[in-house]
Each structure stands twice: as structure tokens, then as C-alpha cells.
Amino acid sequence: MNIPLLNFLFPNMCCICKRYGNYICDDCKKLLKRNLPECYICRRISPQYSSHTQCKKSCSLDSVFVGWEYNHMSASILKLYKYKNVREISIGLSNLFIDTIQKSSFSSHLKNTLLVPVPISNARRNERGFNQMEYITSCIGMYFNLDVKNDFIYCKNSNSHQANKTQKERYNSKDNPFYIQDQSLKDISKYKNITLVDDVITTGYTLEKITKVLKTQYGQDLIINALCIFRGKPYYLSTN
């Protein structure tokens, strides 16, 4: 059965307003709230999306681009995309994300970078049937003419979803589920930096753990940036 016939029998519906046509209709695209350029650590304005020098630690990301605020609308998109296995939504979401990146000041960070989608464990891949970020990363790579490596970073199987943990639990976790296998990329000198691609950032736990693995392997001078589709409103951990 071909795709046009499937669309006729099971027409697409906007996951936000439930209007038939596209998984994200044009009206709802306009309602997505853009994130301002900021330091991803302190959440204060940073015109080039760079992490402030005074905020960075040894394994912190150098800059993080975020497309939109994570709220009830974006949650509806990700629920279909990640857990309902609606792969077709990735086409519209990829195009929208690419357009937003291209119009931002972050696009200058993408010169000669290696794109790496944030991995999921084999258990999660078997559960979902695919890693949703691999397709979006490949679309970004094709548009900006960048190399993409899906099998660079690996993720160990976990008995619990990060989404089921509180923000403080994720932030304080000492476990690192990510690793580089011996047969992975040996020489990254031809790239200016590495750019990780993820769907949602909260405390930055996942991205920081991957950054630690990469900088331990390739040195603290390695520049690591990230592209994230959504992020929630600023959340400040208590120091008490």
C-alpha cells in the first residue's frame, strides 16, 4: 500500500490543534515559542549561544542552540514522535528546525563540524523501533553539507527512563551511560568541532555526560556544541 493511499485512509492530523492536514499545521508552527540566545548553564542572554566563561566547568559544552520552549504544545509533538512511532512527523519537524537554525547566529558554529545524534540504548531502540534523532541529524547534515556519524557514541541499557527522574536526580547522578567503542572515529582533527543533536534539554545531564566522554578521549581543548529542539523554562537548582 503506497503512502498517498495511506494518507487518504488515515489522514494526518495536527498533534496540537487536531486539524486535518499536517502533523504540525502552519498556524500551530507560529504558536511555538522561540527560545532566546542564552548561556545554557545560567540561562542568561548570550548573543552567540555561547556558554559564559565564568559558568563553564572542565566538561561543559561550549554553546547550545535551542529552537523552542518546551511546553504543552511541544510535548504533544514529542509524544507522537518518540512514543507513538509516527515517523512522518520528523519531516516537518526537521524542516522547521533547519529553517530556525539557518536564520540564527548559531549557524556560524556549524562550519566544518561533525554532527552526532544523541544515542539511545539498544533497549530503547527496540522499544521505539528507531532513534528519532538520527533522521533529524541526517537532514541537518544534508542541508548544511556536514558529516554525520551515528555510531560514534553508544549508550548502555538502562532500567529507567531519564524522563521518569526528577531534574535534581538527573543533575546529581554520577553514572555515565555513554561510551566510545574502540572502532569509533580515531582522528577528529579534520573537524573544527563536534555538534551533538538532541530533542529536549532540561538540566543538561545527557549532554554533559557525553561531553565528558569526548573530552576525556580527545582532550579538553575539543570544542563541543549542541543543537536541541526544545527546552523548558529556566530552572535553578537549590544550593542548599
Q: According to CATH, what is the topology?
A: Rossmann fold
Order of helices and strands: HHEHHEHHEEHEEHE
Q: How many strand units?
A: 7
When the domains are counted, the total is: 1
Identify low-pLDDT runs: 1-10, 236-240
Record the strand order, biggest sheet. 1-7-6-2-3
What does this protein structure show overall?
There is one protein chain. With 240 residues, the protein is an alpha/beta fold. The protein has one domain (34-160, 173-231): Rossmann fold (3-Layer(aba) Sandwich). The chain is built from 8 helices and 7 strands; from the N terminus they run H-H-E-H-H-E-H-H-E-E-H-E-E-H-E. The chain has helices at residues 3-9, 26-31, 72-83, 89-102, 122-128, 132-144, 167-172, 205-218; strands at 63-69, 113-117, 147-148, 154-155, 178-179, 193-201, 224-231. A 5-stranded parallel sheet has the order 1-7-6-2-3, sandwiched between helices. A two-stranded antiparallel ribbon has the order 4-5. Helix 8 links the parallel strand 6 (193-201) and strand 7. Helix 4 crosses helix 6 (132-144). The longest helix has 14 residues, at 89-102. The protein is globular. The N and C termini lie far apart (59 Å).
